[in-house]
């Protein structure tokens, strides 16, 4: 009754509003301090070489690699997957020849579109100074490819149920194909949002050069070509400590959050890969998203937990 009196009285109402305002401010302030205290750190383990493992269980993978930020090549990761036996250059020509795929130019932001058949023709007729690469081609909208796709058990699809448009808009690839000729590369980078990633070779061969996250200031924001570094232009790079590995058909590599890398196709190669958000890095990814966009970044964890909310937010233009 007394509360009703305050609400009906302008002075009482203002008092309640001011009190609520300050209490809310205080709660937000305390939560912010608590959150900053719990800021998650990027975890990584230095290595001299990348380990090759077989018969690894999912729990072993999490314990020995994902939870400590350590790269690994899982030699039999793609062994039982349909795509490993079904997909090859002939399959892409006959089943997907007319699809327009995204094509990148070596180590540059420039991209265009080309049909898969035209790209495969280009591989055989190209001039020696041309380096076009079907890279980061998200296949979730192409049932003739996506229906065959299943990720290795170590890299479960974290994007199930999320709207495709959301995945495209925020570049959260969940199944990206790479078809490139010898010497193609997307350039030196670390993967978005402090997510980790995996890449598996279906045919061909890749060379991967990796660096621990603490060396970032030596990389000139990724302008260096680690396969042919220009030390006059980028002298700090001379101090960097690369670790190299070769990735062959059937093998998949886990690249932990924050590790810089450049990958080059040593032969005409088909590969598939994805960003990875799992129980080891999701908090770090959400924190990174919050730093980029405080409001959206706070909505993302909800979207990942309840994909139907993502559809709703997307349809009303909130994200
Ligand atoms: O295989 C490649 O060319 C690049 C893989 C990669 O690093 C990525 O997609 O982020
Ligand atoms: Fe990458």
Characteristic key phrases:
alpha+beta, three-stranded antiparallel β-sheet, 2 domains, Jelly Rolls, single chain, 319 residues, 21% strand, binds fe (ii) ion
Structural summary, described in words:
This protein has 319 residues and is of the alpha+beta class. It folds into 2 domains: 2-37; 51-289, Jelly Rolls. The chain is 34% helix and 21% strand. It is built from 11 helices and 12 strands. The strands form 2 sheets. Strands 1-2-10-7-12-6-5-3-4 form a 9-stranded mixed β-sheet. Helix 10 crosses helix 11. It starts with a helix and ends with a helix. The mean pLDDT is 90. Bound molecules: 2-oxoglutaric acid and fe (ii) ion (FE2). Residues 135-136, 178, 185-186, 191, 197, 199, 206, 261, 263, 271, 273 line the site of 2-oxoglutaric acid.
